[in-house]
C-alpha cells in the first residue's frame, strides 16, 4: 500500500502540487486523471522519488521512503517499475539489451535463461522475436510503448507506474495497452498507478480514481461516483483532452 | 524662463544619475549571481566527483560499460591521433630548424624538438583536440539521455547513473589518454626522424639518437606521457559527464552542454598544464 501525506512541490517558487493526500491499495488500478500541465507527471515522479518533494511524506507498506538511504532505495526500486511518458528506452541499446540489462546486472542467471525471460516478456506484450535486434528509433510509437512495458514487467515488480500510457497511440494500440494493464493486474496481481488525461482510458481500466486539478486532488474514490459535472469542472478551462 | 531651464537641467542630471546607479546595481547584481552560480557549479562538480569515487568499487559490476568506453576512447581516436602527431612532429622540427643558427650543433636542435614534443606539445595539443572530440560527444550523449528521461529510467532499474555512466568514462579517460599520448609521442618522434634523417639527410641517424639521449631524464617522460594525460583524461571525461547530466531543455540544451564541456575542459587543461609545470619542473 502506498500512502501519500501532505505532499507539496514547487519549481522556482511556483507551486505545482499542494498538499496531496492519497492512498493506493494493494492490487488495484489507481488512476490519477487531470488536465495537461496540472502536475500529473510531477506527482507520479514524486511517488517513485525521481523528484524530491518540498514537504510531505510517501510511504510504501508503512515505510517512509524519504528516510531511506540511496542504497536502500536502490533496493526498493527493484519492486517498482515505471513506464515513462516518453518511454525512455535506451536508444544506444537494441531491444534485446534494453530488456536484458536489468537481469544481466542484478541477477546471476545464465545468458540463456535471461534470453528466455526476454522472449517471454516480448511475447507477453504481443510482439514478435524479429523485433529483438532492432533499435528503438526503428520502432513505431505503439511498439515502443509495448517494449517499455516489457522492460518494466521483466523486473517482476510489485508496483507499476504508467505515465500517460496511451499518449500518441492509435485506437488499436490503445486497446492493446489497456489489455496489458488489465492482465498485469489479474495474472501477476500488480498494483498499478496510471496517470492520464484520457477520460476513456480512466473509465476502462480503473478501480479507483483521483482527480487532479490546479495543484490539488479534488476527488478520490470509485470511478462510478464520478459525475459528468465533475469531469466538466475538471476540464472547464477548455484544456485539451481526448475522449 | 531661465529658472525653468535650470530646473529642467537639474532634473535631467538627477535622471542621469539615477540611471547610472541603476546600471551599477544591475552589474553588481548580475556579478553576484554569476559568482554564486560559479560556486554552486564548483560544489556540484565536487559532489559528483566524490560520488563517482565512492562508486569505484562497483566497477566490476559495470565492467561491460567500462570495456565499451575503453574501446571508444582508444580505437575511435587512433586516426585523428596519428594525423595530428605526424604534423605536430613536423611542425616542431621546422620550427626548431628555423630557430637554430649554424653555430648550434644539430643534436641540440633535435634535443629541443624531442623534449618540447614529449613534455608539452603532444600531451596538451592531443588533449585539447580530444576534449573537442570526446568531451563534446560525451556531453551530447549523456545530455540527450537526460532530456529523454533515460537517466531516470536507469534509476528505476536500480542502476546508479554515476556508476553506470560517469565512472566507466572517468576510468577510461584516466587509462586511455596516457596510452594514446605515448602512441602519439612515438609517431611524432618517428615522423621527425623520417623527415630530418631519412628523407632529407639533415642529420645522421646516429646523431639523431644522440640528440634524444642528450640530458635524458626519465621523469620528464613520466610527466609528459603519464601524469599530464591521465589528469587531462579525467578532466575531459568528467566535464563531459557533468555538463551532460546537467542538461535541461531540449536539443538546444544538449548543444549548450557539449559546448560548455569542450570550452571548460580546454581551459582547465591549459591551467592544469601550467601548474603541473610549476610543480614538477
Ligand atoms: N523540472 C521542472 N522545472 C520547472 N517546472 C516544471 C518542471 N517539471 C514540471 N514543471 C511544471 O510543472 C507543471 C506540471 O507539469 P507536468 O509535466 O507534471 O504536467 P502534466 O500534468 O504531466 O502534463 P501532460 O499531461 O502534458 O504531461 C507545469 O506547469 C510545468 O511547467
Ligand atoms: Mg505528463
Question: Could you describe the 3D structure shown?
Answer:
The complex is a heterodimer of chains A (243) and B (281). Chain A has 243 residues and is of the alpha/beta class. Chain A has a single domain (2-236), classed as P-loop containing nucleotide triphosphate hydrolases (Rossmann fold, 3-Layer(aba) Sandwich). Helices cover 35% and strands 26% of the residues of chain A. Chain A contains eight helices and ten strands. Chain A has helices at 40-47, 70-76, 95-106, 111-124, 141-153, 171-188, 199-205, 228-234; strands at 2-11, 14-24, 29-33, 55-60, 63-64, 80-83, 159-163, 191-196, 208-213, 216-222. In chain A, the strands form two sheets. Chain A has a six-stranded mixed beta sheet with strand order 6-7-8-3-9-10, sandwiched between helices. Chain A has a four-stranded antiparallel beta sheet with strand order 2-1-4-5, covered by helices on one side. In chain A, strand 9 and strand 10 (216-222) form a beta hairpin. In chain A, helix 3 (95-106) packs across helix 4, helix 3 packs parallel to helix 5 (141-153) and helix 5 runs parallel beside helix 6 (171-188). The two termini of chain A are 30 Å apart. Mean pLDDT of chain A is 90; it is low at 238-243. Chain B has 281 residues and is mainly alpha-helical. Chain B has one domain. Chain B has nine helices and no strands. Chain B has helices at residues 2-54, 63-74, 78-99, 106-147, 150-156, 161-199, 205-213, 218-245, 250-280. In chain B, helix 1 packs across helix 6 (161-199) and helix 4 (106-147) packs parallel to helix 8. The longest helix of chain B is centred in the first third of the chain and has 53 residues, at 2-54. Chain B is flat, with a radius of gyration of 26 Å. The termini of chain B are far apart. The model of chain B has no long low-confidence stretch (mean pLDDT 91). The A-B interface holds A 45, 48, 50, 70, 74-75, 77-78, 80-82, 84-86, 88-92, 101-102, 104-106, 155 and B 61-62, 64, 141, 144-145, 148-150, 152-153, 155-160. The complex binds adenosine-5'-triphosphate (ATP) and magnesium ion (MG). The site of adenosine-5'-triphosphate has 13 residues of chain A, from helix 1.
